[in-house]
Amino acid sequence: MYSREKRIYRVTVLGSVVNVLLVALKFAFGIVGRSSAMIADAVHSLSDLVTDVVVIVFVRLSNKPQDADHDYGHGKYETLATAFIGLALLAVGIVILYGGAEKIVSALHGEALPRPGVIALWAALVSILAKEWCYRFTVKVGRETGSSAVVANAWHHRSDAFSSIGTALGISGAIFLGPRWTVLDPIAAVIVSFFIVKTALGLMKQASDELLEKSLPDDVEREIRETAEACPGVSGVHNLRTRRIGNIISIEMHVRMPGGLTLYEAHRRATDIERELRRRFGEGTYINLHIEPLKVDGRYVEP
């Protein structure tokens, strides 16, 4: 069985190989086929190569163990990778939008746009199949390893597949509907750009939530409370604080137990809670428990 880092490295390198081949194919067929939509699609695939490199570098950094300067490890490097991928996607979407809009305006002013060749359509169809395949095996590994950066990269693959679908439709219309419809090629590029921008904004929001240490979802916090309260003698949980650090989570909470317990017994029960939480949320989960005695009439009473 491969380690988490090796699985991420292998799946990202495989995606990079596919991207290299597609970039070369799209640029060549886009230029030969005179398709602005296909050239825009090639630029999108080129951005995939950049994000593959980002994932490989940042995930390796995030897997470094904690040290004297990083008590909570280096997980936030992975969050930064997600943010960079989102920014790269946003830039690509804006460039494609601008280029397509410029050609549409030119067509509205009477400029004849070149009719794309069938070779560009074949490139789009190959890209759809290849990038959807990349999405499926990448998102599978991303979810199994709990890597937000790999899942983000998988969506980058799928956004490229969506881009190629729009490109294929635009090229098909421009080829088969006649010279008056060559404007469909840049229109397809513009439509695709909106999907790319939407995906980019979603990834950037996810990264910003983690960097700003947003609490985990309510259903996850509810599961944490229920796990702690299921321990014998625990009467309640309060002051629960959660956050995500890259691919792991951090849990802090106050746990109430009978005040008459010995220190040994209280420690044993706290260890049971920690063990169960790590079983559910991963061995790397950071857990900080503060044990409190039960209150009588709203105040602590010595047993």
From TrEMBL:
NADP as UniProt keyword: no
Membrane topology of the entry: Multi-pass membrane protein
Subcellular localization, as worded in the UniProt entry: Membrane
Record field: transmembrane: 12-32, 38-59, 80-101, 113-130, 161-181, 187-204
Limits of the Cation efflux protein transmembrane domain: 14-212
Domain (Cation efflux protein cytoplasmic) ranges: 216-293
Coiled-coil region: none
GO MF annotations in UniProt: monoatomic cation transmembrane transporter activity
One Pfam family named in its UniProt record: Cation_efflux
Keyword vocabulary terms for this entry: Membrane, Transmembrane, Transmembrane helix, Transport
GO cellular component, one term: membrane
Lineage: superkingdom: Bacteria
Family that this chain belongs to: Belongs to the cation diffusion facilitator (CDF) transporter (TC 2.A.4) family.
Name this polypeptide is given: Cation transporter
Natural source organism: Marseilla massiliensis
Lineage: Bacteria, Pseudomonadati, Bacteroidota, Bacteroidia, Bacteroidales
